[in-house]
Amino acid sequence: MSSLLTAVIIPASIPSPSQGVWHLGPLPLRAYAICILLGIFAGYWLGRKRWVARGGSAEVLADVIMWAVPFGLVGARIYHVITDAELYFGEGKNPVDALKIWHGGLGIWGAVAFGALGAWIACRRHKVPFLAVADAMAPGIALAQVIGRFGNYFNQELFGKPTDAWWGLEIDPAHRPDGFQDFGTFHPTFLYEALWSLGVIALVILVDRRYKLGHGRAFALYVAGYCAGRAWIENLRIDTVNEFAGLRLNVWTSIILFVLAVAYFVIATRLRPGQEDITTPAPSDKPSDDAATDGDLPADEAKTDTGAAPASAAESSSEEAPGVDRPRDAAGDAPAAADGDTEADVKVDSADRPRD
């Protein structure tokens, strides 16, 4: 009885999805693409919460993401095609397959590098610190990876070595690589990486909450944390890739980036402690031209050429603002204001001219 109960509670293995594509008429809905898109939206949601909490503009971040996402997708595919060129070029290969992103094949480091380039361009346009955006988005990038990895699950790809553990992943014979046809279950490396990335999210958020990471340190912590897990997870995989000195290319990439990220974190902590100021007004918060003509500019903008703020109507009725020369008639007397206009009105109107 107890063995039967154990079998019910703990499955013998993790089944793979029976399909990864559904059709709505002629339109194919691919699970891989859906996971990528859901990951992007989830990552933006988390990054937006962190950015706004630091005083940043949600509208500005949305524009940064609009630049970063297409750059990142292109970069992810370029990285994959370059590092696995033998899959697309050479005898018997069709180079057009390199464009078929829906079949899978996105390199995370290409996505991060090119996405950072797109974000940097947008940050320059909005005059916001790029490293502050990277810090705010760091856990969001990891969250996007968590969800995106399930696309590999639906595609039955990038799994690990054979295993008899109860959490082994069932792989259909058509997806098993040469030499592994007689094995039925494999290490679910997609799940290992997703769980590890969840830990990286918690690490970055908790450390940032405690020490107020700035100037790129939260992003460096994300890179170091992710690379530490990716190195051992990558070694479990059995898909064919390029190797150097007995290690897979992505293992070398993870080691190098881990060292660089840790070095940057330490140096930035010593040279640039604390967080940078990212408070920026949202585009909708800027005064309109109509507000300027109505005399509703903020006090620090509605100043005379001498730098003095215009006096209120009550104060201006009895004395003139110092340092303001008013035209006088031949007798040296100040001209009378027009009917219905007070002296304060004349001064406010002169101060409220639209500015460049």
Automatic annotation (TrEMBL):
Stored InterPro entries: Lgt (IPR001640)
Region (Disordered): 276-356
Topology versus the membrane: Multi-pass membrane protein
Residue stretches of biased makeup (Low complexity): 308-321
PROSITE patterns: LGT
Binding site for a 1,2-diacyl-sn-glycero-3-phospho-(1'-sn-glycerol): R149
Chain intervals with Basic and acidic residues compositional bias: 344-356
Pfam families registered for this protein in UniProt: LGT
Enzyme class: transferase
Chief location of this protein within or outside the cell: membrane
Localization: Cell membrane
Function in brief: Catalyzes the transfer of the diacylglyceryl group from phosphatidylglycerol to the sulfhydryl group of the N-terminal cysteine of a prolipoprotein, the first step in the formation of mature lipoproteins.
Family to which this protein belongs: Belongs to the Lgt family.
Protein name listed in UniProt: Phosphatidylglycerol--prolipoprotein diacylglyceryl transferase
Organism of provenance: Kribbella sancticallisti
Native organism taxonomy: Bacteria, Bacillati, Actinomycetota, Actinomycetes, Propionibacteriales
Primary gene name: lgt
